[in-house]
Amino acid sequence: MKDILTAPFMTEMIRTATNMYAHTWDERNGGNISLLLDEADVAEYLDVNAVVRTIPTGFEAPALDGKYFLVTGTGKYFKNVQYAPDVNLGLVRLTDKGATAELLWGFTDGGKFTSEFPAHMMSHAARLAVDSANRVVMHCHPANLLAMTYVHDLDERAFTRTLWQMCTECLVVFPDGVNVLPWMLCGTNEIGVATAEKMATARLVIWAQHGIYSAGKDLDETFGLIETAEKAAKIWMKIAHLPIKQTLTDDELHLLAEHFHVSPRAGYLA
């Protein structure tokens, strides 16, 4: 059986966590990642019948029963993932309609998955219902998007339009826009349910005064969604207090959409 530390999904997970920390999106133990895996890929590296231990999840997600996830651990620092992946990451299989996670590898210090695991799994289920190719849910705390939630209207259309107008690429990268939740207590099933509802219509969900959730078909796409939105937020935070002399117009945004064959979220452009 192959060494799991050489698995492409493992090396990419480690690389992504390290890069997110380098971007200052995941201070201390902030943020989390979950990656949906195919059983055939896991079976190349692990005996899928050898369960290390079981961990109650505290929720149910019948649509994810039997699915495998590589996930970051609770209280773990992203900066340490590259040095001790077996401590800071875990590979689990959901059973009992999602109520139980069978640990197959990792969390060797006795730890478990992130406290945001319910929100991740609910978001996975929501995204899979609209896009069967979805594989990743990512949460982090990008400073400029976070700052925007203190000074910008939290209306989703207004927030989306501001980001679209900051960088030419934004409409192309996330034509579905961003959804926004007001501040809620993190680490609860309630915020998981609310986030999943928002994930049904957009791959980016902003948690006001906290951070952002992103979903995508792979780690690169999901990282790139946050990276692009955060760049737009950085530009807005630099210029919001200044007199704006020009910006991208709706006509120009329509032109972008036509050229790159994307469909802007309905009702968001004139």
How would you describe this structure to a colleague?
- The chain is of the alpha+beta class and about 270 residues long.
- The chain has helices at about 10-20, 40-45, 85-90, 115-130, 145-150, 155-165, 170-175, 190-200, 220-240, 250-260; strands at about 30-35, 55, 70, 90-95, 100-105, 135-140, 180, 205, 210-215.
- Strand 8 (about 205) and strand 9 form a beta hairpin.
- The chain starts with 7 loop residues before the first helix and ends in a 10-residue tail after the last helix.
- About 45% of the residues are buried.
List the helices and strands and how they pair.
Elements: H1 8-22, E1 32-37, H2 39-43, E2 53-56, E3 68-72, H3 85-88, E4 89-95, E5 100-106, H4 117-130, E6 136-140, H5 143-151, H6 156-166, H7 170-173, E7 178-181, H8 189-199, E8 204-207, E9 211-216, H9 219-239, H10 250-260
Parallel strand pairs: 7-8
Antiparallel strand pairs: 1-3, 1-6, 2-5, 3-4, 4-5, 6-9, 8-9
Strand order of the largest sheet: 2-5-4-3-1-6-9-8-7
Q: What is the H-and-E element order?
A: HEHEEHEEHEHHHEHEEHH
Shape: elongated
Residue-averaged pLDDT: 97
Q: Characterize the largest beta sheet: strand count, sense, and whether it forms a barrel.
A: 9 strands, mixed
Radius of gyration: 19 Å
Helical stretch tally: 10
Which CATH architecture of the largest domain? 3-Layer(aba) Sandwich
